[in-house]
Amino acid sequence: MYKNLAAAFAAACLFSISPSSLAQDKEPLRIGFVYVAPVTDAGWIHQHEEGRIAVQAALGPRVKTDYVENVAEGADAERVIRDLAATGHKLIFTPSFGYMEPTMKVAKDFPGVKFESITGYKTAPNVAAANARYYEGRYLAGIVAGRMTKSNVAGYVAGFPIPEVLQGINAFTLGMRSVNPKAQVKVIWLNEWFDPPKERDAAMALFDTGADVIAFHTGSTAVMAAAEERGKMAVAYHSDMRRVAPDAQIVAVTHHWGDYYTKRAKAVLDGTWKSGSFWGGVKDGMVRVEGFGPKVPAAVRNEALARQKDIASGKLHPFTGPIVDNEGHEVLARGRVMTDSQILAMNFLVSGVVGNVPK
Q1: The predicted structure's pLDDT at residue 26
Q2: Which whole-number Å values give the CA distances from 162 to 14, 29, 97, 98, 337, in the listed order?
Q3: Dihedral of the alpha carbons of 7, 13, 17, 18, in degrees to the nearest 10
Q4: Can you give the pTM of this predicted structure?
Q5: Please, are residues 99 and 116 in contact by the beta-carbon 8 Å criterion?
């Protein structure tokens, strides 16, 4: 089940043969990663797998990393997390929102193990929470989409109606409408994180209703492939996906976990690890726009990169008033900036979004 299990078994056999030669060597920190979908060459899991590889490369023999892929949220997740904790993993990363409760449950039974709930928000003495401000990249991608659309209609394939996804839809819409006030964003909810056939079908449906550019918050490259097939434009998410959609991709919103994961592993090794919450963004190098496609004029690319610098410096905040929801209610007054607590509790869709928040 674990990567490099054969190597671990060989090491155990070697120890039993010649304990004197190894007794003085400090055992490596065993680190486990739990993945909600298969490891592929792009997407949400790919970025976390890149983070795991970065930890192993940075810390070398001081750590031994394992991963378990394609683990469903819920009971399966609890079983896998518990198994990792029981088999000597002292730091466990669980990068999926639906892993939060299983992580908290297992952590109570393993107080000596450190857990990192990625995209979760609950913490405990041995559970930290971390996420990235994806909405910053979404706003920037919206600027590009707003400049590039001809129909003034964008599509958005969404996973689950949690605040993180709503932040992305809203920031994308606000970015589009900051340069193109006529722009609309049509949303289809899947209630899935990773289902390539459903992702593709949703994309095709959105193209059929007039969207000429599409974004998504799911785990595969299916939406990108659909856009390439239909000759439409698409915003890649998680990873640069030009390999899948060389003509369709106009920009990619990417996130990067290697530095954070390495820092947290070092803290365990050094005995300085502490619980808490971290929410990094553009200024921290965790989120950025890149992978501009060949259709994008230099002026549009430069505009997006300039706004990215403004976000990093604090000059620009995507959620600055006035903000009105798509039912006509004022959410934020002119000149006000949303607090982190307001963003984290987001439960509405902004004006310009065609759709609703499922109950």
Answers
A1: 81
A2: 48, 34, 9, 11, 21
A3: 40
A4: 0.86
A5: no
